[in-house]
């Protein structure tokens, strides 16, 4: 009988995680295992749904109770940007130094990591190896997605579309497209999305594509120029690409529309991205990190679901959603006339 491995670092994929989130858990855990000398392991494999990447899943996690379960530390702000931002809070977490200290110490032989696990500090030193871990068959997508004069827009809709604090406004996309035209005045644009209806309403007249997850992933992997949303899906196809020339992403990530300087989350500042603010200005990752270090996090408190401020913000955002829908409808009618 084989001896059970010691010094094991694993993660368990959970039902309900998106593909981008699952891949961050996979890559960060595997990279940290290699960096700190652990055997890599995974559980919940039936929920991974990434067969097209032919991932090495390491050793199996069979008995979760035999592991120390370590959940990455988060940090929350409670602001009136949405009802949920007051009750559940805005996640502004960065790199979890306590987690890294635990891994360095080897105080625990078997550890399961959970959380966002999206900080570049967890995996950035192993980018070349990650490119081989996440090898994608480029034949899954039309090679024309890698054209020199084509920019792909990865629009995230679905549950984002009803959240005005989260769903990226038209201005973000049009400002980013104008900047891409500086790279090439003849630049063409195409949308890759999981929500065709929302994308067509947001950016009418631009071709929209929605395929199977592996097809959309491969299309993003082929692209040379990209404008991405505040979603984890596009990160690894871009991060592992040999073609990519320029990527524009929303500054402040999941609170691009409303932030006064905080990031949701601070983990989502990546060296390969440039970041666009609401005024149409571009920033490097280093400039974003420097600004964030100078930002003074306000003291805030969590609110109850029935708090009057929570109810006020909920009604305000519902009105904003109705106004946005009416505006999109009016724009469509004008184009038809």
Can you describe this structure?
The chain has ten helices and 14 strands. It has helices at 19-36, 83-87, 97-105, 127-133, 170-183, 196-202, 213-222, 235-239, 285-294, 308-336; strands at residues 8-12, 39-43, 59-60, 68-71, 76-77, 90-91, 110-114, 150-155, 188-193, 208-209, 225-228, 246-250, 274-276, 282-283. The model has no long low-confidence stretch (mean pLDDT 94). The strands form three sheets. Strands 10-9-8-11-12-13-14 form a seven-stranded mixed sheet, with helices on both faces. α8 (235-239) links the parallel β11 (225-228) and β12 (246-250). The protein has two domains: 8-82 and 93-133; 139-294, Rossmann fold (3-Layer(aba) Sandwich). It is of the alpha/beta class.
Q: What would you say about this model in short?
A:
With 337 residues, the chain is of the alpha/beta class. 34% of the residues lie in helices and 16% in strands.
| Binned strand content | 15-25%
Shape: globular
Alpha-carbon Rg, integer: 21 Å
CATH topology of the largest domain: Rossmann fold
Query: Quick one: CATH class of the largest domain?
Result: Alpha Beta
Main β sheet profile = 7 strands, mixed
The number of E-state strands comes to 14
In angstroms, what separates the terminal alpha carbons? 76 Å
Give me the strand/helix succession: EHEEEEHEHEHEHEHEHEHEEEHH
Spatial strand sequence of the major β-sheet:
10-9-8-11-12-13-14
Q: Which architecture of the largest domain per CATH?
A: 3-Layer(aba) Sandwich
Give short descriptive properties of this protein.
337 residues; alpha/beta; Rossmann fold; 2 domains; 7-stranded mixed sheet; 5-stranded parallel sheet
């Amino acid at each position: 009988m084989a001896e059970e491995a010691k010094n094991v670092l694993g993660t368990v994929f959970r039902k309900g995680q998106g593909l981008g989130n699952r891949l961050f858990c996979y890559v960060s855990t595997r990279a940290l295992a290699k960096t700190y000398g652990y055997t890599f392991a995974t559980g919940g494999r039936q929920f991974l749904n990434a067969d097209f990447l032919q991932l090495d899943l390491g050793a199996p996690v069979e008995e979760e109770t035999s592991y120390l379960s370590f959940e990455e530390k988060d940090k929350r702000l409670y602001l009136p940007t949405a009802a949920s931002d007051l009750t559940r809070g805005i996640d502004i977490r960065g790199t979890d130094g306590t987690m890294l200290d635990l891994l360095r110490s080897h105080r625990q032989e078997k550890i399961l990591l959970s959380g966002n696990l999206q900080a570049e500090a967890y995996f950035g030193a192993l980018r070349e190896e990650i490119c081989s871990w996440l090898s994608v068959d480029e034949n899954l997508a039309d090679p024309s997605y890698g054209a020199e004069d084509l920019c792909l827009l990865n629009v995230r809709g679905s549950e984002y579309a009803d959240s005005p604090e989260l769903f990226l406004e038209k201005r973000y996309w049009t400002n980013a497209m104008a900047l891409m035209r500086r790279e090439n005045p003849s630049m063409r644009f195409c949308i890759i999305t999981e929500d065709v209806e929302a994308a067509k309403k947001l950016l009418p007249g631009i071709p929209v594509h929605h395929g199977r997850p592996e097809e959309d992933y491969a299309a993003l992997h082929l692209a040379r120029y990209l404008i991405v949303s505040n979603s984890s899906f596009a990160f690894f196809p871009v991060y592992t690409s040999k073609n990519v020339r320029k990527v524009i992403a929303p500054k402040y990530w999941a609170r691009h529309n409303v932030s006064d300087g905080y990031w949701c989350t601070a983990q989502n500042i990546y060296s390969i991205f440039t970041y666009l603010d609401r005024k149409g200005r571009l920033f490097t990752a280093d400039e974003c990190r420097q600004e964030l270090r100078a930002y003074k996090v306000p003291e805030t408190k969590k609110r109850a679901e029935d708090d009057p401020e929570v109810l006020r913000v909920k009604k305000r955002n519902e009105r904003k959603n109705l106004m946005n829908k009416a505006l999109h409808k009016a724009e469509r009618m004008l184009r038809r006339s």
